[in-house]
TrEMBL record:
Gene name tied to this protein: leuA
Record domain Pyruvate carboxyltransferase: where: 7-269
Spans through the membrane: none
Family the UniProt entry places it in: Belongs to the alpha-IPM synthase/homocitrate synthase family. LeuA type 1 subfamily.
One Gene Ontology CC term in the entry: cytosol
Reaction catalysis annotation: 3-methyl-2-oxobutanoate + acetyl-CoA + H2O = (2S)-2-isopropylmalate + CoA + H(+)
Protein name, per record: 2-isopropylmalate synthase
Xref: InterPro entries: 2-IPM_HCS-like, 2-isopropylmalate_synth_dimer, AIPM/Hcit_synth_CS, Aldolase_TIM, LeuA/HCS_post-cat, LeuA_allosteric_dom_sf, LeuA_bact_synth, PYR_CT
Highest taxon of source: Bacteria
Alphabetic keyword roster: Acyltransferase, Amino-acid biosynthesis, Branched-chain amino acid biosynthesis, Cytoplasm, Leucine biosynthesis, Manganese, Metal-binding, Transferase
Function as written in the Swiss-Prot or TrEMBL entry: Catalyzes the condensation of the acetyl group of acetyl-CoA with 3-methyl-2-oxobutanoate (2-ketoisovalerate) to form 3-carboxy-3-hydroxy-4-methylpentanoate (2-isopropylmalate).
Class of the enzyme per the UniProt entry, highest EC level: transferase
Amino acid sequence: MNNPDRLIIFDTTLRDGEQSPGASMTRDEKIRIAKALEKMRVDVIEAGFPIASPGDFEAVQAVARTIRDSTICGLARALEGDIDRAGEALKEANSGRIHTFIATSPIHMEQKLRMTPDQVVEQAVWAVKRARNYTDDVEFSAEDAGRSDIDFLCRIFEQAIDAGATTINVPDTVGYNLPDQFGATIRTLMERIPNADKAVFSVHCHNDLGLASANSLAAVRNGARQVECTINGLGERAGNAALEEVVMAVRTRRDLFECDTGLDTTQIVNCSRLVASITGFPVQPNKAIVGANAFAHEAGIHQDGVLKSRETYEIMRAEDVGWSHNRMVLGKHSGRNAFRARLEELDIVFDSEEELNAAFRRFKDLADKKHEVFDDDLLALVNDAGFSAENERIKLVSMKVCSETGETPDATVVLTVDGEERSAHAQGGGPVDAAFKAIEAILQTGSVLELYSVNSITSGTDAQGEVTVRVQKEGKIVNGQGADTDIVIASAKAYVNALNRLLQEQRAHPQQGNV
Ligand code: KIV
Ligand code: ZN
């Protein structure tokens, strides 16, 4: 194909991805992910929902200040306060977009909004015009378009374009559509809306039936030129279309698509690891493109074929999505420069020499216990080294755990809480249970532990264990992570990390509430 159209990649990991229970991110974590997305040449980064909380506002503002090459987008309901807050947060962006939305399906209009279709159209037009006061780049979404009446969609989209929307987004909010049907919807909309040529048509698919990527691709084959997606398919409920799947399907099957993305796909694996380690949502081993087994050939017959000719069983090259860049190993003799250089390749840049030195000391400690340090070890170590320590009120000072056959395990834990040292002793069903009980005895949070999982970061008995915990209190759900070669210590770090997050501010949800 000579000149394929550009397929715009709109990443919403920092907004819809963050709506996964427990996946909330701090401002600094969002900046790290945004930098990795910019390096991958993502076109648009939806950085958050500025009206949700002061923290969300600051995060969008900080991402808008930092990122120069990608457009930064803020989400806003079709409400004055939302749009003004998004406009304010994006003021310093090199290129800023306001994404405003209102629901259009009968069930949402009647049950949630309690508005008539005419009122919804009027509100949408008003919202687009208001957003245009802040930027020429305005996206309008019809929430639950996947269950909306096609005539009504044609009407509202035509008027939104007339009001100044430059991107029209068609979300399958509840993941209800099937690929051929969704593709036909996009084609019909683009054919029937008289001013369709004045906007880019976009899709935003959820994965409730496991069809988010397939639906997005069907839409692209029928004319959509923007796909909204997330790294690792993170997102509300079953998640969103996975960026890596959409991008690699279009790249690999160029014969079937009249468009291509501008992405540097060799950054995909790095981005995936970064998002998994920051959010505490591990990637399943058999996940397409970014799963540990995605390019592993276990069966003898496959290995034989791949050795003779790679194409016998591989449709993509592992190095094209960044796997080969992840093999470099550091050891106890590696110096500070090698450490810094490798972290920079992983998009981790230190703000100060002290931060670098602290992380380097931890690296040396780890390299003493574990002879080869891999990229995943480094990511875990940097997360541990206090990149997100800014708001941490609770810190683990020390712990001692006794576990002996025939005896009840017990733990003594020392924490600092707002700088004040406190300790407690507790017994439990196992050493982790005892440690958690001691921590709760100090903090008295009244929270409930909903998930506890341990993953080995690399192979071998000297591997670091990465522990993820999910904690819930009064409907607020947070994840915490900790890594250590001692999994009881990793568990305590993860628990403390989650409880720190629990103490942070509460955020509003964009799709709840009246409009
Ligand atoms: O799923 C959805 O409809 C959304 C909108 C806000 C675009 O996330
Ligand atoms: Zn969504």
